[in-house]
């Protein structure tokens, strides 16, 4: 029997009609890796959901990818709700998690709860994600107490980019790695259902993942995470300026789309488009 057939046999894969926060914890228990991708609009979310991605993240990376900002900081709560409700209208299967944007939860737990409630009520999303550990503990508790599932996010947290100063790998030093481990355990204890680990050493991801019963989802966190997340525009090669080591591009849509669009331009100029069959 070929080696990869054995590999397939060892994956206890269950068909989930609808992915829930409980399914994700079950997947970890059963050794099934979790797939997560971003989507910010209806058309992309339809494709991502039909491809059976388990979790769709309406990330605040929409600030970069959709709006062209340099950081995730400018996107507003209203804009996140607009993106999230477009995604929700498209999906049949995936669990939809929405980022609480910068400034909507850091000042006090009551404001954090108000922001989370707006996302759930106005978009129909299934869960929210917040960046940080002990410093946002009270906000996480308050949101969870209202019955809203929370996903944590540790390691490189892009909303703190001006504090870090760079987008390089986090928690390489022991002190920061220890703090990350403590934060991960705290978030699990508070009741978070999962945790994004961004741009940290693979061995630290392994240690954290083995210490928790909730799933870890890595982006630049290596192969030991319980699942992986990428920005869908990066995976499809629609963005081309961004080339971190962790990114695997499955297409070069930037080039493909560019070619298609310039063919259209020349067909219009040469009066090849529309032809007799393409008119009424
Ligand atoms: O906003 C986002 O896309 C994210 C992922 C990078 C995890 O938070």
Describe this structure in words.
With 280 residues, the protein is an alpha/beta fold. The protein has two domains: 15-249, Phosphoenolpyruvate-binding domains (TIM Barrel, Alpha-Beta Barrel), CATH 3.20.20; 253-280. It contains twelve helices and eight strands. It has an eight-stranded parallel β-barrel with strand order 1-2-3-4-5-6-7-8, surrounded by seven helices. The longest helix has 17 residues, at 174-190. Bound molecules: 3-methyl-2-oxobutanoic acid.
Brief sketch in words of this structure:
The protein is α/β, with parallel strands linked by helices.
The total of beta strands comes to 8
Overall geometric form: globular
Strand arrangement, major sheet = 1-2-3-4-5-6-7-8
- How far from one another are the termini? 58 Å
Number of helices: 12
**Please, what is the average pLDDT?**
95
Radius of gyration: 20 Å
How many domains, in number, for the residues?
A: 2
In the CATH hierarchy, the third-tier topology of the largest domain is known as: TIM Barrel
- The CATH architecture of the largest domain can be given as Alpha-Beta Barrel
Can you summarize the main beta sheet?
8 strands, parallel, barrel
Name the poorly predicted regions.
Answer: 1-10
Write the layout of secondary structure elements.
Elements (H helix, E strand, L loop, with lengths): L2 H7 L11 H10 L3 E5 L3 H9 L4 E4 L3 H4 L11 H12 L6 E5 L9 H15 L3 E3 L7 H9 L4 E6 L5 H4 L9 H17 L3 E5 L3 H10 L4 E4 L7 E4 L1 H4 L17 H17 L11
Parallel strand pairs: 1-2, 1-8, 2-3, 3-4, 4-5, 5-6, 6-7, 7-8
Helix pairs in contact: 3-5, 5-6, 6-7, 9-10
